[in-house]
Amino acid sequence: MTKRFYGVAILVALLFSIYVLTSAGKFHIVDEVSLFGVTESLALRGEVDTNAIAWTQWVNSPGEVLGAFGPNGEVYSKKGPAPAFLAVPWYLALLAVARLDIGLGLLQGTLLWNGLITGLTAAVLWLTARRLRYSDRIGITLALLYGLGTIAWPYANQFFGEPLSALSLLFCFYAILSFRLTDRLYWIACAGVAAAVAMTTVVAHTVLLAIYGLYLFTFFFYAPSGDPVQEEPDTEPAPSASTPRGSLVQRMVLAGTTFAVPILLAGLLLLWYNNVRFGNPFSTGYHFDGGEGFTTPMLQGLWGLLVSPYRGVFWYTPLLLVAIVAFVPFFRRHPVEGFVIFGLSFVLLSLYSRWWMWWGGFAWGPRFLVPLTPFWLLPLATPLATIEQRLERINQGAVDRRSGALLRAVGLDGFIIALFALLSVAVQLLAVAVNYVNFEIRLRGIFPTNWADPLEFGPPAQRLMDWWLSPVLGQWYLLRENFVGNNDLAWLRPDGNISLLTLFVGLIAIFSLVLLLSMVLKGYRSEQRNSTASPILLASMPLIPLTLVGVWLGQAATDPHYGVAGSGYRAVITEICEQAKPTDVIVTVAPFAYQYPMNWLAGSCRVMPPIVGYGVTNAAEPQAQTLLSELLLNTERIWLVTGGLPANDPENLVERWLVDNAYEADDRWFDDYRLVRYASAVRMRSATTTQLGIPLGRDQTPEITLLGATAPAAATSASILPVALEYQLDQPVNIELHWFVQLLSSENYPVALVDTAPRNGYSNFADLPVAETQREHVALQLPENLAPGRYRLIAGLYDSTSSTGERLRLPNGRDFVDLQTVTILGQ
């Protein structure tokens, strides 16, 4: 492997290490959660739903609705599939490690993925500069400026699709450029694959395909551009897969077909994906009838994206101001590439400036412009080449080194680039060091949203006179007010605790990689630029960032944001994983605690039940009822997890629905979180109904008649046994009665039991009407290793207010009713 590719590998490792050290290890906005939900579902179950955050469908603002309902009430993300799909191997690698009983947070680890994507984008930018016949030193400089001096850095630490858009669009550009220079057909195939990835990341990128197509076909009519003064690109062997030497039309058809095939396959993938989600290949999940769409006046959007203090790109990456000036000489030297960059910029700016939420919601800077950032930085290669020539003359002794010759060689243009580069790096440091969401929330207080009509919301700090409210300055305000409390670094906790090990290993890793990269740079000054890199160094170099990742994940796992092992939600997860079966499902009513199961559940469970997450009132919605009904018919056990809610909360409509339709077995608390087990209706399909008509009462006075009972005639140990009781009141009941249901062994010892008020506490007997049939659903969680045999199922009523637990009696004096015999078959 040549030294260049060794240098590229070092560059990627260096940037990735910096991104790991500056990662928060947390979601910032719910868009990230939606994409992660797809990755998790696909990796664990081969599905693409985001049911784990179904509650996001019922919010005030259409901008927060991150998906749409499928035919069966399931929720699917409206985001393009590529970012979530391509992160699956990374997720699975983390999962394999986590299941070695290593305390590794899957969510935290997956959030590092875009750091690798951004590092690869920087590497492609370096190689693109080389293809344009600029030196490796300029390529490395551009790559570092992109990776550390643009909004690419903050987005490397977040789970958005924009970093993948940047990589795919730039690689498509690079591949077509490579084809133009080498006439190798496989570069067209690579360009087609990159275009396909871009299209499946953001469907709107389809409009860019025409520009790339024109760029491709200019090869047949316009000679590739380059600067003969610069270093020649690496020589390549004679192409073994070049376009055939047929007629011009034949060559164009072959090139066009090779480019189009991956794109057509991507189009079919999107149609299939839409059909899987929504039952319609042309339904994307966007709510154009609900306010989403291209409705913003273009000039307003352009002002916002380019100039406004709130989202103006030059506020967030000042270096791009210099790049605009550099575009003129770049265009003169590379007119075709200049037209391509201009065309891509014009189309995407026109597109996103019209989008109803052009500012991208709670985001850092103009996130929709992240894909254009490497293209806008590329023109800096031209002034950098001029500066490099002047410095080379000094190194070669052509210019006297004395009398400030070095300063003159750097020149005013060099100092301007350096100044704006440092300013841009400082802005990105503020972005990754301080949680920008805190200032976004503050801006919402200054410019409040009209929740009666959320679409009325206008992004704040739009006027230049509001420059002091720019989020860029907001980061400084937050840092100055309370850096520790507002910090966004995983190794620095808001309580002031610092993971010195992570910081030490991170700094050592970065220093080592900087040293290796500087050695590569020195090699480019010699005649050994294409020499073979040491296999030992090449093999050992990835260990540097991997060691940092391991240390970072180890300390990040102790972040209180993800709970404390053995308590609260973490204890709930442990309890579920010890008993989880393939026929289980988890329903959560804890919308602000979704990060706990996303981080820990899959790594702790050998059998991973699917999760459906609702808010307290969501069960009133028809889509939620449809999905819950599907779960009731296709699963055997339902785990309900609630957070911060009392038992039998009248506002908790999800629990009320389960009480009426499923069969509750038990109810336990883990600090502020509650775990309730239900049996579904599946086991009742083969149940036996016993007609009883037995009255129960006090003092020989019938108060309640037990009409009948339904339960399976057989069960296995460790399973859950549902029981339905039908009864009616014979007269008003003015005491608080509870049902008890028990499974007795041959020695009349209760091996499983349940105790409940009517409707599991949502009703009481005093409120029930007389002479009207009532139905009570309960379930018994059978213990493991329960001996096979025949067991008695009994039920009765007792006074819960009595100190002795006085039971109602049958006419024969007994205090319970024999319901039926249940055969336990073993596991």
Topology at a glance:
Elements: H1 3-21, H2 30-45, E1 67-69, E2 75-77, H3 82-86, H4 88-98, H5 106-110, H6 113-131, H7 136-149, H8 152-156, H9 162-182, H10 185-201, H11 209-217, H12 248-278, H13 298-306, H14 313-316, H15 319-333, H16 335-354, H17 373-377, H18 381-395, H19 405-433, H20 436-446, H21 471-486, H22 500-524, H23 535-540, H24 543-556, H25 568-579, E3 584-589, H26 595-604, E4 611-613, H27 622-634, E5 637-643, H28 653-661, E6 663-670, E7 673-679, E8 687-698, E9 701-712, E10 714-715, E11 720-729, E12 737-744, E13 750-756, E14 774-781, E15 789-799, E16 817-824
Parallel strand pairs: 3-4, 3-5, 10-16
Antiparallel strand pairs: 1-2, 5-7, 6-7, 8-9, 9-11, 11-14, 12-13, 12-15, 15-16
Helix pairs in contact: 1-6, 1-7, 1-22, 1-24, 2-4, 6-7, 6-9, 9-10, 10-12, 13-16, 15-16, 15-19, 18-19, 19-21, 20-21, 22-24, 25-26
3D structure, described in words:
Among the domains are: 117 residues; 141 residues, Immunoglobulin-like (Sandwich), CATH 2.60.40. The protein is 47% helix and 14% strand. The protein contains 28 helices and 16 strands. About 2% of the residues have low confidence.
The total of beta strands comes to 16
Q: Specify the structural class.
A: alpha+beta
CATH topology of the domain at 684-824: Immunoglobulin-like
Mean pLDDT: 90
CATH architecture designation of the domain at 684-824: Sandwich
Major beta sheet, strand line-up: 4-3-5-7-6
Anisotropy-based shape: elongated
Share of helix, binned: 40-55%
Uncertain parts? 226-240
Largest beta-sheet details? 5 strands, mixed
Radius of gyration: 33 Å
Fraction of residues in β-strands: 5-15%
Tally of alpha and pi helices: 28
CATH class of the domain at 684-824: Mainly Beta
Straight-line N-to-C gap: 57 Å
